[in-house]
Amino acid sequence: MPPPVVEVIMATRVYGSEIFSQIKVSGQPNVDADSDIDILTLIAGSNITLTTDATNDTVTIATTGLANQTHTGDATGATALIVVGINNTLLSSLTTGILKNTTTTGVPSIAIASDFPTLNQNTTGSSASCTGNSATVTTNANLTGDVTSVGNATTLTNAPVIAKVLTGYVSGAGTVAATDTILQAIQKLNGNDATNANLTGVITSVGNTTSIASQTGTGSKFVMDTSPIFSETIEVESTSAASFGAMITLDHNSASPAAGDVVGRLYCTGRRADGNSYWTSYIDSIWTDPATLVGASRLEFHVRNGDTDNTGITISDNGQVTAMGIISLTIVRLKGYTVATLPAGTQGDTAFVTDALTPTYLVTVVGGGAVVCPVFYNGTAWISG
């Protein structure tokens, strides 16, 4: 609201002296002189002081008690204010901008860029690159698509992940490392498939399924663990047309064989009443003398009596059989003849013939037949025995 305007109208008397005849205040009634010589009285209002100077013919009008005044109300209408300065700083002396208050002094100034906090360090671009307005923004909308959300909680299910294609996939090789991406790890796994090829040879495989191929012919070796365990029955079948059938060979491939070495052993074991496994009997093949030009060996049959190992039968390198060290037997192989080729014998000699003709026990043998039978020389003739 502008201050009132005071107008003083001058009048001139006939004798030439100038006087005030009327005082105007805008918006107020005029104050007119009621006589040629009238008196204007000035009255000090609220917060106004009037000081007269009779010597210099002056009146000083001053305001009092208006410093740092506080205005309350809605600052509109009759109480509206025009603020021209704050704390002795004229607003007109400041440049255009955002007004900043200095807390310690209360002196106003114009804010600069460093006065404003950085709201988002990752914000890029400028106002020219921003589009839309508040009408087009959906506040706190839930995410949709591969990643969904309800409020601040997000969800990523398996389906969209496993459905993604492996863009840039190339089969590779190497060891999967913790720093590999999923794509790199899959590439390495695929590239190493060649090192996991199916087994070939005696043991074959398809994937993780293995099988043992049948062993045929001679010279093949199937190497097993030191103490393999077989279930139920081991069957060795030979379909060879040769004069011998299936064989099991126990080979002691020692670089320094010595007398007493057990070159092979066949064990029989079982469970006793305490549930523990014990051997019951076994057969040993033992070097008696492994020298190159000798190569003598023996065969021992062992049985168990409590915790005692008894050697039941021993067959020596010359074929002599010893049973429990008491009975000594010599295996005698009879020599074969035809009746016509039987030698001149000594009483007690034994042999066998291959061409006996209807032999009769203790009767002189006659040749010309096809019967194989033992014969005994009684001191006079060879008789059927």
The level of helicity is under 10%
How many helices? The count is: 2
State the order of secondary-structure elements, H for helix, E for strand: EEEEEEEEEEEHHEEEEEEEEEEEE
How would you name the oligomeric state of the polypeptide chains in this document? single chain
The low-confidence parts are none
Strand content: 25-35%
Radius of gyration: 67 Å
Structure classification:
mainly beta
Descriptive account of the structure:
- The chain has 385 residues and is mainly β.
- The protein is built from 2 helices and 23 strands.
- Among the domains are: 58 residues, no CATH class; 25 residues, no CATH class; 36 residues, no CATH class; 69 residues; 49 residues, no CATH class.
- The strands form 8 sheets. Strands 14-15-16-17-18-19 form a 6-stranded antiparallel sheet, with no helix packed on it. Strands 20-21-22-23 form a 4-stranded mixed sheet, with no helix packed on it.
- It starts with 5 loop residues before the first strand and ends with a strand.
Helix and strand arrangement:
Blueprint lengths: L5 E7 L5 E8 L5 E2 L15 E6 L4 E6 L21 E2 L2 E2 L8 E3 L6 E3 L36 E4 L2 E4 L1 H5 L19 H10 L11 E4 L2 E4 L49 E10 L5 E13 L6 E10 L2 E8 L4 E4 L3 E4 L5 E2 L12 E7 L14 E7 L4 E3 L1
Parallel strand pairs: 20-21
Antiparallel strand pairs: 1-2, 2-3, 4-5, 6-7, 8-9, 10-11, 12-13, 14-15, 15-16, 16-17, 17-18, 18-19, 21-22, 22-23
